[in-house]
Amino acid sequence: MEELHLALDLEGHEWEAVFVDDGSTDSTWSALTRLHAGPDPVRVVRMRRNFGKAAALMAGFAHARGDVIVTIDGDLQDDPSEIPRLLAKLDEGFDLVSGWKTKRRDRWTRRWLSRVYNRVTGIVTGVRLHDMNCGLKAYRTDVARSLHLYGELHRYVPVLAHYKGYRIAELPVNHRPREHGRSRYGTERYVRALLDLITVSFIGRYRHRPLHLFGGFGLLLGGIGFVTLCYLTVLKLLGHAIGQRPLLLLGVLLVVVGMQFASLGLISEMILAQNEERDDALVRSEARVEEVLG
Length: 294
Known about the structure:
Layout: H1 2-8, E1 17-21, H2 28-37, E2 42-46, H3 53-63, E3 68-71, H4 83-90, E4 96-101, H5 108-125, E5 137-140, H6 141-146, H7 157-163, E6 168-173, H8 188-206, H9 210-237, H10 246-293
Parallel strand pairs: 1-2, 4-6
Antiparallel strand pairs: 3-5, 4-5
C-alpha cells in the first residue's frame, strides 16, 4: 500500500486497491482487515480456499470498480512504480498492456524455461510476447470482464484477449528479487502449460468452427484408410490373399476413426448452432424489454 500511494498519488489518479486473499493460512487476512479498517481505499476479497490464480483474478475483476484494472502480484517482485507507465501506454489506444520482465530476478532454470515457453506460445498462437505470464498488466475493464479464466488459463490472458479482437501491447518493466515467502510454482507447471496451450489454441481458432478441426482430422485419416483399402482390393483382384495382412486392419481402423472424428465435428457444430440461437433469442428478448421500458 505504501508503494501504491507513492506511485499513484503523485499522478493524481483516483484509485482503489482490491486485495484477493486466495485461501492463505498465515496472518494475511488479519493484515488485510487492518488495511480495510484504515483510511486507505482498500477492498478485500477472501476466497473460501485456495482456488488458484485464475479464480483469484476473476474474483478481483468482478469486485473492481473503475475504467482500468491493473493486476500486480503480492510478493513485491513487481514494482508498483511501473503502473503509471502502463497506464500511459494504455492511453495510446491499446486495450491490454502486459509487462515484460527484461531482467528477471529468478533462478536461471526458470528464466530458461520461461524463454522456451514464451517462444513456443508465440509460434502456436501467433501472439509474440517476450513475457506472456507477467503478473503486472493493465486492462480496460471491459477487456478484463470479457475473459473467462479457469484452471491455469491466466498464463494466456494476452492470447485470449487477442482472440477476442483486443489490441495488445508489451512494456519493459522492473523486476525485483524475492525477499519474502517462496514461490509455489515449480518446473512442472510448464508441462501443464503445454496442455493449456492446446486448450487455448482450440478455443481461439476453432471455437466457432469445430468441424474444420475434427473434420480435417477425419478426412485425413479416412483418406489414408480409403487409399489403403483400395490398394488391398487391387491385390485381392490380382489373386493375392489379404485376410491375414495387418494392413487390412489398419485400413479399416483409419476409416472408422476418420468417420468418428467427422461425426464429432458435426455434433460440435450442432451444439454451437443451438447455443448461438439461444443467445440470439436472449438478445432479442432484452431488446424488446428495453424498447418497452424506454
